Amino acid sequence: MSMLPLRNCLPYDIVMNDVVAQECPFCRSANVLLPLKPDDVSSMYGGRRKIMLVFPCCHGSVRMIDADADYLLANRPIRGK
Ligand SMILES: [Zn+2]
């Protein structure tokens, strides 16, 4: 993913068996528990699977088209300018 635009990347952490976004790109809530499991994220590696992610904090949604061990990749810019 090194060639991909950072503004499309959402950093996340795996905590136990949960996936936590460091910050919601829509409402800026911190440490948002995502409706994903670590296996869902690993199934997205290399763009093998795409998902519509809905943030539980504000119901903001974005299509995630790729992932690696540190980031989910959105199909559009989601981070600060
Ligand atoms: Zn939010």
In words, what does this structure look like?
- The protein is mainly beta and 81 residues long.
- The chain has one domain (6-74).
- The protein has one helix and six strands, in the order E-E-E-H-E-E-E.
- A six-stranded antiparallel beta sheet has the order 3-2-1-6-5-4.
- The longest helix has 5 residues, at 38-42.
- The structure holds zinc ion.
- Zinc ion is lined by residues 24, 26-27, 29, 55, 57-58, 60.
Bound molecules: zinc ion
Task: Identify the overall geometry.
Answer: globular
Q: Main beta sheet, described? A: 6 strands, antiparallel
Low-confidence stretches: none
Count helical runs. Answer: 1
Rg result: 11 Å
Topology:
Elements lengths: L8 E7 L2 E6 L6 E4 L4 H5 L8 E4 L6 E7 L3 E4 L7
Outline of the structure:
This protein has one domain. 6% of the residues lie in helices and 40% in strands. The protein contains one helix and six strands; from the N terminus they run E-E-E-H-E-E-E.
